[in-house]
Amino acid sequence: MYNSTQDTLIIGKKVIYLPTCHSTNDIAAEIVHAGLFEEGTVVITDNQVKGRGQRGTAWNANAGENLTLSVVLTPGFLPIQEQFLISQITALAIRGYLGSYVPDTRVKWPNDIYMNNRKSCGVLIENSLQGSRFATSIVGIGVNINQSVFENEYATSLARETGQTFVLADEFHKLLKSLDAWYVRLRSGSQNDVIRREYLRYLYGYQQDVKFLYNGNITSGSVTDVTKLGKLRVRLANEPEEMDFGLKEIEWVRE
Ligand code: BTN
Fold first, then answer.
1. How far apart are CA 165 and CA 29, in angstroms?
2. Considering the entire predicted model, what is its pTM?
């Protein structure tokens, strides 16, 4: 069971808790479609049976051990060319929350969160537009909290990295507070450059030598920037100039 929170400005004033559901992003989309929502509404479940990940993948999380939730935002103040800022504040909010427990918590472009070099959280953001502005943005977040066994050897959880067990409702509120604070900064309109700078500060591979899979070859390089449109700017060894990549155009290679 999860309650609404009073100590945020926008996010979590209304919380819809479902013991089981297929995908919180899909439930959030249904609520949006029906027009029955206020900004900041959160849909959360203990048992997501058909969780969706990026690029058509599945997101699996053991029932009752993790946080699987979606937040409905209406960032109509943001031009669509600036939409990557929503990814950036989401990543920064989760990073800040998890980083308070595990110092080596970084963002892997575009918005995966890694603790001690293992993935602990995934984000799936789905936007709907009205003309050149946002109507809604559904921010789906899966954070591994108490799960200790994973099929994927490169996945981890807060419990695994700290050796502690957590009360999910408490972690839910901490996460919402962090999201709310970053969303309020975004809404102020005056912090966009700060947000971009902070994102680079915690970005895996930024000004570091890392490996990429590009054009079927493993190549070393380093991230030099992330463009306003959210493309990853990389200087690859053996390439004369920096190059910008979208989601499916380059992959990280684990070292
Ligand atoms: C990824 O890393 O591929 C993104 C995973 C996103 C998972 C979350 S869990 C809550 C929300 N509902 C979904 O169906 N997906 C997101």
1. 32
2. 0.96
